[in-house]
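Residues determine shape. We examine one folded chain.
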Amino acid sequence: MDWAPIRKPPEVRARANLRDYATACRDFDWTTARSAVSGLPGGGLNIAYEAVDRHAEGPRAGQAALRWIDTAGGVTEFTYADLAERTNRFAAMVRDLGVRQGERVFTLLGRVPDLYVAVLGSLKAGCVVSPLFSAFGPEPVRQRLALGEATVLVTTSSLYRRKVRPIRDRVPSLRHVLLSGAAGEGDPPALDPLLAASSPEAQIARTAPEDPALLHFTSGTTGAPKGALHVHDAVVAHHVTAAYALDLRAGDMFWCTADPGWVTGTSYGLIAPLTHGATLVSDEGDFEAHRWYRVLEQQRVTVWYTAPTALRMLMRHGGLADRYDLSALRFIASVGEPLNPEVVVWGEEALGLPVHDNWWQTETGAIMISNFAGEDIRPGSMGRPLPGIETGLLRRGPDGRALVTEGRVQQVTEPGEDGELALRPGWPSMFRAYWNEPGRYAKTFADGWYLSGDVARRDADGYYWFVGRADDVIKSAGHLVGPFEVESTLLAHPAVAEAGVIGKPDPVAGELVKAFVALNPGHDATSELASEILAFGRRALGAVAPKEIEFATQLPHTRSGKVMRRLLKARELNLPEGDLSTLETADAAR
């Protein structure tokens, strides 16, 4: 189904940070962009200084940097000056423990103030920070701690006892475990007394732009997790992309709902908004529709960055948004998986603002393609490349990946033709390595391009449209079928809340398209409804429509909100389920 573009009024365009896309792309260069950050006094660049101390030393010292909402709904504020002092103490503490610059500090925490202190304090000390999902089990925790050669882990007493203590003796590099909150008998030391005894005036390590700063583990469909390493220069891209793609500015109340163990929870849930002098809103509680609307209303959130899964769950609650005052909202963006066009339009109707999709990966470190505040939206599109980012589509071979012939690739030039999405290296937040895996890193590049593994198409105006992961694309009766396109079409049926699409082996067609569907309240999973949805799909999609429908109470998601198609396929075919460490087990929207 085709969706009409959403036109932005002139007054919206005039207020946007990015008002003229063509001019911004023509005039942009990263050298000039670096002037937006201060740099360390005396030379060097440090993410924590850009996020906290340069504000704490100026007129924003008394402004709220972090507004934290606990599970009971209580609110605690930390000013930029508060955050500067506490992160100084953390940096001094790790140095007192004998931790050296470049060693790895891991966090295994939910949304609690000590998460922000540990990340920023570690960066001040010149350490490399690696956040982990608090929902990981003991083995995924052990695997990542061992792969990253962790020196320090900051966690809670409960998480330590359940997930760390059983595996600690199998991580020989781990010298220190520090506990946020109370520590019980026999536990490692609590963080608070150590911070209280540390200096509030620690010097920030004189890190250089190319010094390692962040280590984010990402799981592929197979194999061990990959540790994508980013450097302090990444803060330049965090800052610029937040201004362009999220329309973020000083004084905003910014709420990013991404899990802090995921790259978005670091790049945009922590670093980027602070570099702009915004206030972070952080909610410790789990997803619940009324709670989320209350946060938006009571905290007067102006910019909201959330996940398609969460938005679809809010859609299922009908007119609930009408009960809340959301007038402070200026901009809504989505991340985690491609955004279905229905959700973009629902945002305008229910929230008064359309939802802006964007695209990036752990490896890119920052948003690369986006729909912008000052530009029209094409529902279902990822948008256009940010200024300073060169993208291309590469012709694909039989395996779905870019076809590399004698080290060379061919670009797709015709609008509407699929290809593997690729980017020219050179932006500051591009990952510099897979930790201790140079061969694996080298395979992600060809002929001067970074190969994303995502398949997309581009229209005549330069808007990109997601098709699927190269290893998700379905080959059915000579057609290449993008699961996302099929899922979005099914989502337009009033009974369908979510859909996950896979290819099922077939001796004649090669693969048949099968859809797993979760229903909206008020609809029963009957054979009549299945037939109706199949017919709906055939009318919209023709030959590439699903041939089978299976109803599910809910679909499996990663904690970043992506439907785990490979898990649906493994269960359908009775295959090994593989790495489930990123599976969302508690609530799909966090």
Observations:
- Residues 390-471 form a domain with the Luciferase; domain 3 fold (CATH 2.30.38.10).
- The CA atoms of residues 418 and 457 lie 5 Å apart.
- The two ends are 30 Å apart (CA to CA).
